């Protein structure tokens, strides 16, 4: 031939550059659109083969070029198959990882099945495309998943040639699962007629000569000669082989499976070796990683859930709460978890109707903007309660099931004290409940028991430590505190913390002086200053004061103490206010349990902390599962997070910050989180804003203030007993007087600069004229609106108008402000709350309280918020004063520091931290049907 036609060179190097340029734009768009989101690839290597290291460095460099984070994880040659599988599973479960590749071949001593390893990589993260699931998808023509990299690169190079694949005749030499077989499948689903040749194929040369497209991946150097090629064919050479070549500095040259010189004279297009398929393999690996990350991002940041709503079967008259709850079969909790965007690895199942959500989920969702934050509070309640929890549940059912807004309710876990006492549970009521309500109101997932265990372990350690210090000399005590184990004597990490606080800069136990040993070993707890009590989750009045240490083994080391109810424990408040496990542990370490007796006065004594007692780590271990919120659902199948249950008068009375943070991310910027503040605005809401909001950083969009005509009538001096006969005129007269209580609570609410919506919890005896009186009074006091809600009898559909009003209110501009500045003196903070929230004329402090307040300020606690413990049955400190008391003095009888929780507790009036059982508690009505296993008479 006088003129030779040279084939077009299909440069994988050039195409990969173009591909990586496009990927760089995609990752930049991901980061911009999804608030800094970044694709993450993990490269797993066993051993350290030099050739593997070269490939890995190339992948890491290419990943950096396109904006993909690449982590190289190297394991020793000695790793076993089970160990490697376990490590891969960790990355499968890690939500921050979007792509996983295992570098082959495995450089290992143990016999490891490479196919088992590649199949262990989650199909969603298998960016090599080697998992049998991804291979199977390609085989059946599903090309929406992660396609094997080299085969995908081959297809892109063929498309680069300009040939139309559809209708062509394609021949693939090689049937390996990595290249040959998937290439053949891809060509088939691109509508080529495909022939696969392999080592057993007869007359391969004849088959090759028919090919319009030839893909060679047979592993034999220069196996295919140009004379075999159909003129004008497209040839893709996937091979790379090393041949001796003395002319090269390296002593070898790289060739493909095709004889390039002769084939390039007959083919219309051909890939070089190197620089052909190889670079495209890496490009497709990165493309798969970006594809997998984009899918995850779209799931995380999707704006609308697709909830399967459970229809209600409304009955008249409305049955009991437990009958309603049992008539509705909850969704499988894993189904609900997936509906709201949770990964399976983030859900810890407790049966199929409740589950804990790992707080590590917050890391995955950290870049999502928070949803709207709604807090539900109430007026001064009657002993019956006014339905805050019921309204909260009804509102979220209306928002999620009827208004189609991503919405989560965040509720406290109820204590068994009121459940078996008088008040009952807190799952809502009527057709606005959390189900299963028996689980919700009883043990749930054991968080209260974990708090109880941690609290009582600390109490046991306090008394044990005082006993051992009293019965041992310094050196003996020190030797037991820092024993020699297997010939080694060392301080534990928490003991090193104590040394540091004491100013002892030593780590070798043998180097402490006698004086340092005494200082380290003796806490010298003053028993009269111990503020840490034992707890139990039962109303038991006879534990309000007890004597401990009466056994002869305690050698007359007795003292008086008491039990509190578990939800009054500072540990419960800490659980509710901690942002994560580290914050929880830090707060636990700061708990102050007593003062030492080295100094003669309270004003100069030193705090004895949980860390001094060596308790921090042990308590954290007991609470390691309790830090995770519990996922449940409403009667209509909408999500609820149940977490923590601090007492609303002793502590701050709100569910956990962790649950609120998690819910805010799950619902997304257009969604809603509805949470509840215990009791009325004077107690629960004030603490919610001044304590919880300060620590969470979440600012509420709307306040929902719940009231009932029944309660407002009581505040006006009217009867609430349905058996008392009064005229409608008398009822309205009492209501007109009683709405002043509602107006005071509205006034309390607007002080924080947040829109207020009054929710009138409708009851059967209410009239339209009564509702109008309440609405007019609400608007006059500054509420944005007052809405009648029938959620108790109608579920979410009865709260649609309330939901619409809340949505409208949440869109209003807000100027949130705290009630007081943390830099104010403690006494002034207390007076501000008493006068602004309760309407007190003055506050009375006894000398002991003033001394303590001064001491707390001198110890650095002055900048903490205050948590006033007072009756919930009146705006004043006297439970008998209804309506809006004025000209009263609020007596402050005691104060103490909850340093771990991060507030000063102020006791106003007679407040018990251990409720008692009434003459006829709910116990009489509760039973177990031993044949069916059903609980009877819970509500």
Automatic annotation (TrEMBL):
Ranges for domain Tetrahydrofolate dehydrogenase/cyclohydrolase NAD(P)-binding: 148-295
Chief localisation class: cytoplasm
Pathway where it operates: One-carbon metabolism; tetrahydrofolate interconversion
Enzyme Commission numbers on file: 1.5.1.5, 3.5.4.9, 6.3.4.3
Keyword Glycoprotein annotated: no
Cited InterPro entries: Aminoacid_DH-like_N_sf (IPR046346), Formate_THF_ligase (IPR000559), Formate_THF_ligase_CS (IPR020628), NAD(P)-bd_dom_sf (IPR036291), P-loop_NTPase (IPR027417), THF_DH/CycHdrlase (IPR000672), THF_DH/CycHdrlase_cat_dom (IPR020630), THF_DH/CycHdrlase_CS (IPR020867)
Compartments where located: Cytoplasm
Keyword terms: ATP-binding, Cytoplasm, Hydrolase, Ligase, Multifunctional enzyme, NADP, Nucleotide-binding, One-carbon metabolism, Oxidoreductase
Gene Ontology terms: biological process: 10-formyltetrahydrofolate biosynthetic process; folic acid metabolic process; methionine metabolic process; purine nucleotide biosynthetic process; tetrahydrofolate interconversion
Record-level GO cellular component terms: cytosol
Domain Tetrahydrofolate dehydrogenase/cyclohydrolase catalytic: 10-128
Catalysed reaction equations from the record: (6R)-5,10-methenyltetrahydrofolate + H2O = (6R)-10-formyltetrahydrofolate + H(+); (6S)-5,6,7,8-tetrahydrofolate + formate + ATP = (6R)-10-formyltetrahydrofolate + ADP + phosphate
GO MF term (any one): methenyltetrahydrofolate cyclohydrolase activity
Domain of life: Eukaryota
Family: In the N-terminal section; belongs to the tetrahydrofolate dehydrogenase/cyclohydrolase family. In the C-terminal section; belongs to the formate--tetrahydrofolate ligase family.
Subunit structure: Homodimer.
Protein name: C-1-tetrahydrofolate synthase, cytoplasmic
Organism: Acyrthosiphon pisum
